[in-house]
Amino acid sequence: MNKSLLKDALALTLITLVAGCLLGFVQMITEKPIAQQEEKTKQEAYRQVFPDAKSFVAVENANPQKDAKKALKADGLDKNNEIVEILAVSSEPATSSANPNVIGYVMTITNHEAYDGELTFTMGITSEGEVTGIAFTSISETAGLGMKAQEDDFRNQFQNKKVDAFAYTKSGASADNEIDALSGATITTNAVTNGVNAGISYYRYVMGGGSNE
Hints:
It is a single chain. By secondary structure, the chain is α+β, with helices and mostly antiparallel strands. Helix content is 39%, strand content 22%. The chain contains four helices and seven strands. The chain has helices at residues 2-49, 64-73, 152-155, 186-207, and strands at residues 55-58, 81-90, 102-111, 119-126, 131-138, 167-169, 178-180. The strands form two sheets. It has a five-stranded antiparallel β-sheet, sandwiched between helices. A two-stranded parallel ribbon has the order 6-7.
């Protein structure tokens, strides 16, 4: 009986080792293509919100993973929003945000209030504080409801607007800072609106020199 148990244990161990090696191999060969696809998706989103850009470069001394919570706290946007990345937009080929031709910024923002848990989008904003638009890189809301956030009719409401913060309404937008809520998808509308407001808040922090403190 003991020999049988030992044989079974060795067989199970061998199977586990082989399975682990296979999983590791699969991860190794798929990791790079996945990363490349994610980068391609991001670059396409950058171009969508800032089509006039010639280059996207790192913002000197900015560290959104570290300082975004601090930047957003004053506006009450720190608990459910994450600034994943910020890049400077240049009208010329550039390698540094110290380039004098910086015309704005693009940010990758994740909001954790979405109906499905979270959504991620890229947002563009000019050096003067005008939002140029948003483009989703990850969203899994309800089909026919929250997924309509990807449609131009909703996204374009944020385009070419310079406001301190956006607010959504169910009774028809009547001001530049108002967004018509998606019918039957108030949670998604709230998530996107708060995410954009977080981007505006972080933009003010960076432009105010907060990233260099």
